[in-house]
Amino acid sequence: MTLKNTIISLALGLAGIATAIAGPVDEARKLYRSGDYVAAAELMKPVVKRSPKDGNANFFYGASLFQLGDYVGAEGPLTVAEGRSVAEAAQILAGMSLDRYDVDGAEEHLDKWAAILKKGKKSIPSEHDAMTSRLIRLRNMLDRVERIEILDSLSVDSADFISYYRLSREAGRILPPDAVGRLVSSGFDDELSTAYMPENNTEILWSAADSTGIYRLYGADILDDGTVDHAAPLDDKLGEGGDAKFPFLMPDGVTLYYANNGENSLGGYDIFMTRRTDGDDGKDYFQGQNVGMPYNSPYDDYMLAIDEASGIGWWATDRNRVPGKVTIYVFAPSQIRVNADPDDPNLAALAMLSDISLSRREGVDYEELLASRLPQTSDEAGHRSAASPRFALDMGNGKVYYRLSDFSNERARSAMLDALGAEARLRKHLEAEEAMREKYRRGDRSLAGAILESERQTETLRRQTASQRNTAVRLETR
Questions:
Q1: What is the pLDDT of residues 275-329, one digit of tens each?
Q2: pTM here?
């Protein structure tokens, strides 16, 4: 055979191979785009074996394995596809590197992704910018991984994970969504998340979807009669453009933990912390701060609760990717944050909590340690019900009423409800007045007139409260 004929035969053979590959690849593309990853992987597996350097075949095989959760099996074919200038392969590999906290690998794949697009004269998509921002956040977080001591980890059903949190009375209560519906007036009956109520039952914090479907944090005071005052959204900036859920207020009444999936999240929901202060029109909240690693991950992390009385902290995460399950980490909170050495060879493992033994001290019986710290019961019986307020009302006939249920006269009971509401308003007014006095003592003399006016209002509120209590007594005893 002449050289010319050899070249022609080789070209025809290659064309035949290309044709043989093109058909299955097109079919795999359709299967992959429709979400049938099992069929796409099965179709591409023999094709990749016959043509191990084909970029498209390797991509649809590797991408299908990735979608099926076989990240180890996906990496090889995707790397081949990336080398054959398949941009989407570089994108997936960059995401995989971010998920395992490989910042150098993520940067390399992002650069290759951009180079492939530029070579093909295609613009850089917003997804590339988003992943680059995520890389920057990841790199910054890895510089400040907190060293915490993990006492235990629990894999539980995601539907009722809150039931596994065991808090002492001093830490307050985490309430299921239906509890909010029972306590709060209409408008919050659906699309609720868990709520939090402190030990003294004076307020409730929760999350609900607004008219646009975005979850926002809400709060309301609980009056002495057990009713909930006007509900109001907390500061919009806490959500950072995303959903905000799972509030937990520390006993100091200032430090609030919550979760959001906004622009400063590493991925999914991250746990954030803010502090609140008294403002002119209610509570003001500072900009939320991401609490960093190991609490947060590229997946959903939420419901951080710290029980100072027992010395135990809790948070939930789906970073371990078990369908229908979340992992609850139980840890020992520290008063002072201590970060891991950025050069620690186990830094990624400490950040991911892939091996909780790395967080533990040698020679400690953690089962015994946890048992000694956990509250013996959920202590629900010890909490005063928000629907059963206590007070002391001298009826003038040798009797003292302590509950609304003590009243036999409905009008008297209603008058006592009004009195309790007035007392709650008086307390809030006095708190605001004291805040003005404190500012005055610190030198703000411009508040002198406002303080005098507030004192006049105080006397009016005191008279109203006394009058309503007297009305309750009169109606009950006449």
A1: 998 766 667 899 999 999 999 999 999 999 999 988 999 999 999 888 889 999 9
A2: 0.70
Q: Give backbone dihedrals phi and psi of 208, rounded to 5 degrees, phi first.
A: -150, 155
Two structure tokens written together for 45: 């597996």
Q: How far is CA 147 from the centre of its chain?
A: 20
Q: What angle do CA 267, 294, 266 make, to 5 degrees?
A: 15
Give, in order, the Cα–Cα distances in Å from 153 to each of 165, 329, 351. 12, 5, 15
CA dihedral 441, 443, 446, 450 (to 10 degrees): -10
Beta strands 232-233 and 270-279, pairing class = unpaired
